[in-house]
Specification:
Layout lengths: L14 H5 L21 H16 L3 H6 L10 H17 L4 H10 L5 H8 L14 H29 L3 H17 L11 H4 L21 E5 L2 E5 L3 E6 L5 H13 L9 E3 L4 E6 L4 H15 L8 E5 L5 H14 L5 E7 L11 H18 L3 E6 L13 H10 L2 E7 L4 E8 L11 E6 L4 E4 L4 H24 L3 E3 H16 L7 H14 L2 E4 L4 E4 L13
Parallel strand pairs: 3-8, 3-9, 5-6, 5-7, 7-8
Antiparallel strand pairs: 1-2, 1-4, 9-10, 10-11, 11-12, 13-15, 14-15
Helix pairs in contact: 2-7, 4-5, 5-6, 7-8, 10-11, 12-13, 13-14, 15-16, 15-17, 16-17
Length: 547
């Protein structure tokens, strides 16, 4: 079976070259040799009509801006004319056909017969085809050119497969698909030709034995006791800028080797082996600063050998992918507990490019499968997203959220308190109200857990309000026990007076207040007598001396 994981847009990883790699201007790769193109009659007609339309409507500049190049023409005479027109336009801001033809003839690029043929184009200016819009003709020429190249690359891929070089065949297949995808306007029926560009598959069809039960999958990573990742799972992490994204990854790393006394920010890792973190965003010194916090969290002076961090900021995107692949393969024999990538958007081009997004997500999905461990992929939220949910940057963020088994969200409030939670998971979710709360501790100089969740804090505040209300009822009635109906009336009256309202709330509200007080243990219910008795101590009244 072709190993499509070997290539993602370039050459295989070379460990010797990687050591000396620095960001440089990308060099153009040598294209596959293409045989001399022979134009079909239909193609020749389209190319001639395109040149006619460009000359009649003086659209040389528009054609060059649309990406039309001389190499798109199968007719070499027309290719030479268009190249001359484009050079003249770029040099003078206009393109004079006669001047270009004479210069091409004098330079020996065309002969007298070809020159006369090109001169006749002015005589055919009223040809019915010249009225068509230039951009449509240009698109047809480019689409036909891409189709010719794709056909040749597909044939080359088949030859490589026949010779047993599946890796080279896979590379050519990717180039073929890119060529066809790049043709935004394709002539009618061309889409069906995509089937013919797929290389032959000489292997055995990978049918699944559906009579076998699936292998039992163990939960490898948990947050607050809830599973978030198994072997081979892709787990997303979305957060705004400076919102504990890197600290969360460090908390996960610490859980790989931590004991019970370590604050792992609520994470638990049930797996041996090593943890690999790839950082595409931070400098070496910044990574060392995070490592210092991680050592402090673990209470050690040296980083445990089971935690390894790789800095990738100084490398080009393609080389970053190659280093990740090489590192994973180099540590497979050690066993990998988890993989983290801090900044997946730096593994390719624009986050809004569909093909780029698909390629990155496919790569990290394969990386999780090859490593046989959960892979945590971190990405920033869109700047406009204020809910810290469902807003991963561009198409890449959306594709990550679609493919991930779990998506962790980190929301940082106005008090600089972060909440880690998730609504997307294989099993149970962790709502924001009950999420893991964290903040930066000035005393400990690192991010630490807050004991109570947001939901627990709200519940405690609600119970405190219920206690205040019950004590007010006790003071108002000078009683410690009531029938439910009477207690409800007193509660509603106390709350009405406290709020300054003229109208009491509905009896259902008062009944809910009573149930809350019973749940909190503020009231005891005698079902036989139908009496509710307060367990709270009555506040002592202050004695006032008469003067």
């Amino acid at each position: 079976m072709p190993d499509l994981t070997q290539y993602f847009d370039g050459k295989p990883f070379d460990a010797n070259k990687a050591a000396a790699n620095k960001p440089t201007k990308p060099t153009a790769t040598k294209p596959e040799p293409e045989p001399e193109a022979t134009a079909t009659p239909a193609q020749a007609t389209i190319e001639e009509r395109t040149i006619e339309a460009i000359l009649k409507h003086r659209k040389t500049g528009a054609a060059t801006k649309a990406g039309l190049e001389s190499e798109h023409f199968s007719d070499k005479t027309l290719a030479a004319l268009y190249e001359g027109l484009a050079e003249s336009f770029n040099r003078n801001g206009e393109a004079d056909k006669l001047e270009v033809i004479i210069s091409l003839r004098d330079a020996g690029k065309i002969n007298e017969v070809q020159a006369n043929r090109l001169m006749d184009f002015d005589d055919r200016a009223d040809h019915e085809s010249t009225g068509r819009h230039v951009s449509a003709l240009v698109a047809e020429v480019m689409a036909s050119s891409n189709k010719r190249k794709a056909d040749y690359l597909r044939q080359s891929a088949d030859r490589y497969l026949a010779d047993g070089d599946a890796t080279k065949a896979a590379e050519l297949f990717i180039k073929t698909a890119d060529l066809l995808a790049g043709a935004k306007t394709v002539s009618k029926g061309s889409a069906s030709k995509l089937w013919d560009t797929i290389p032959s598959y000489p292997g055995t069809i990978p049918f699944v034995d559906c009579d076998k039960d699936p292998e039992p999958a163990a939960d490898r990573v948990l947050l607050k006791g809830i599973p978030i990742g198994r072997d081979g799972d892709l787990v997303g992490i979305s957060a705004r800028l400076k919102s504990f994204k890197t600290s969360t990854l460090n908390g996960i790393l610490s859980a790989v080797v931590a004991g019970g006394a370590v604050d792992t920010l609520g994470f638990e890792v049930r797996s041996g082996g090593i943890a690999l973190l790839f950082d595409t965003e931070q400098s070496v010194d910044e990574i060392r600063g995070q490592a210092q916090s991680l050592r402090k969290r673990l209470g050690v002076k040296k980083m445990p050998i089971r935690i390894k961090i790789v800095g990738l900021r100084d490398y080009l995107p393609l080389m970053r992918i190659a280093i990740i692949k090489h590192t994973i393969e180099a540590h497979l024999s050690d066993g990998i507990s988890l993989i983290g990538i801090d900044g997946i958007s730096d593994l390719g081009g624009s986050v809004n490019d569909d093909e780029n997004a698909t390629r990155i997500i496919n790569f990290i999905s394969v990386a999780a499968s090859v490593g046989q461990c959960p892979l945590f992929a971190a990405i920033h939220l869109n700047h406009s997203d204020r809910d810290a949910q469902g807003g991963g940057r561009g198409h890449l963020g959306k594709e990550l959220e679609r493919k991930a088994k779990t998506v962790l969200y980190i929301d940082k409030d106005a008090n600089s308190v972060g909440t880690i939670y998730f609504d997307t998971a294989r099993k149970k979710t962790l709502p924001k109200a009950h999420g893991q709360r964290i903040h930066y501790c000035e005393e400990k100089h690192m991010v630490v857990s807050l004991n109570q969740t947001q939901g627990e804090i709200k519940e405690a505040e609600k119970m405190e309000e219920r206690a205040v209300t019950l004590r007010a009822v006790m003071a108002r009635t000078e009683m410690l026990a009531w029938h439910r109906k009477d207690l409800i009336e007193e509660i509603l009256e106390v709350e009405r007076l406290a709020a300054g309202n003229k109208k009491k709330a509905h009896a259902k509200t008062g009944n809910n207040r009573v149930n809350d007080m019973i749940k909190a243990g503020f009231l005891k219910h005698d079902s036989e007598k139908g009496i509710l008795t307060s367990t709270l101590k009555a506040e002592k009244k202050e004695e006032i001396d008469d003067e």
